[in-house]
Amino acid sequence: MVFQFGFYSSLLLITFSQGILYSILLLVKARKTENKSNYWLSTFILLCSLYVAPWMLGFAGWYDNQPYRDILFYVPFQQLYLFGPLIYFYTQSLLNPDFRLLKSDLWHFIPAIVFILYNLWIWIYDQFIHNGYYFYVDGVDKDFDAWYQYSGFISMAFYLILSLRYYNIYRRLIFQVTSFAESILFKWIKTYLISFLILMLLPIVFDILGYFFPEIKTYKGSWWFFLAFSIVMYYIAITAYANPVISKIHFRLSVFDSQPVVLLTSNNSVADENIIEVEADKIKFSDNAEIKNWKTKIAALMDNAALYKNPELTLADIAKILHTNPSVISKAVNQGFGLNFNDLINKYRTEAVIRCIERGEHTKTTLLGIAYDCGFNSKATFNRAFKKNTGRSPKEYTF
User: What is the pLDDT of residues 32-65, one digit of tens each?
Assistant: First the structure.
């Protein structure tokens, strides 16, 4: 096999091979952990590696030798229409353990399938009908056609917006239904979405630079773009592989309408009483007496049973104890206490910490140890909640 090792081809070979390696590692991790989100990300990293392949192999001499030139011409290495859907479904599978790809979701892959069939037709026509280059008479790889690059960018931008909307709905939901929202807000999600945005903007950045430095638009100059792309891809791969967080909140939602989020039971069934409005304060009780009744019950439960000490307390747990449904508790918390569920429970935890400090327990153990005993599950969450509820940091409060 022809491969001319040089400065340009060798550096891209390193990032290309690392991308393939991490794609395999993510696939193995998915099978071991049964975390389906890693299947989506494994495929994404694989396609990112293939995206770099034409430039790497071009510098290795493939465009100058047969049959390697035809391989680069007729194999669609750059699957731009797949990047967006993969990120979108990765976001869903990462956040929702009940996510399943449905038949109704297959339309997202139609543009990619059409592009593959388009390349297949070009190969059939050139090789078996025209018996020579017809579509490739200009010697330019179709992967780099302007119409394909621009439409691919639009596709990725569309799915980035969908992913951000999905995450924002999810973020509002978990504050309504969990007491440990900060720990499952997935800092990693922000990281990879920003990284994906950088991948999208790289062509624009290099086009702008090309106006000031024309050499960037040359064949060798474009190598810097693919090197930058592969570095960002490598960063996504290694940080994704190290991401240990798995969502435990079951739900169903649509980013295309304003329908309420539906919490799923353990058997994956859906009931009207499990419907939770993301903006719960918009749904009002019929009278104030009902609000006061549920508020009293919830407050008594917190004061007498100290349920806030459970670091994984959820809205559904409270509903089960009070023999009602999550929708009722959600409305009662938002309208009765004027807080979302996460903030309410952290307020109780903060008050419990303050009582411990007033008893002098902070002189016998650490503040963080007290915080954990009161239900907080991380130092960052404890500090934020304490500051929010008292206006002072825990250390400032002890002086």
Answer: 887 889 999 999 999 999 999 999 999 999 999 9
Residue 392 CA to residue 298 CA, distance in Å, equals: 27
> Distance (Å, rounded) from C-alpha 318 to C-alpha 364?
33
SS (H, E, C) the chain: CCCCCCHHHHHHHHHHHHHHHHHHHHHHHHHHHCCCHHHHHHHHHHHHHHHHHHHHHHHCCHHHCCCHHHHHHHCCCCCHHHHHHHHHHHHHHHHCCCCCCCHHHHHHHHHHHHHHHHHHHHHHHHHHHCCCCCCCCCCCCHHHCHHHHHHHHHHHHHHHHHHHHHHHHHHHHHHHHECCHHHHCCHHHHHHHHHHHHHHHHHHHHHHHHHHCHHHHCCCCCHHHHHHHHHHHHHHHHHHHHCCCCCCCCEECCCCCCCCEEECCCCCCCCHHHEECCCHHHCCCCCHHHHHHHHHHHHHHHHHHCHHHCCCCEHHHHHHHCCCCHHHHHHHHHHHHCCCHHHHHHHHHHHHHHHHHHCCHHHCCCHHHHHHHCCCCCHHHHHHHHHHHHCCCHHHHHC
Q: Report whether 178 contacts 376 (CB < 8 A).
A: no
Where is average pLDDT lowest: 6-15, 176-185, 245-254? 245-254
- Strands of 261-263's sheet in order across: 251-252, 261-263, 275-276
- pTM for the full predicted model: 0.88
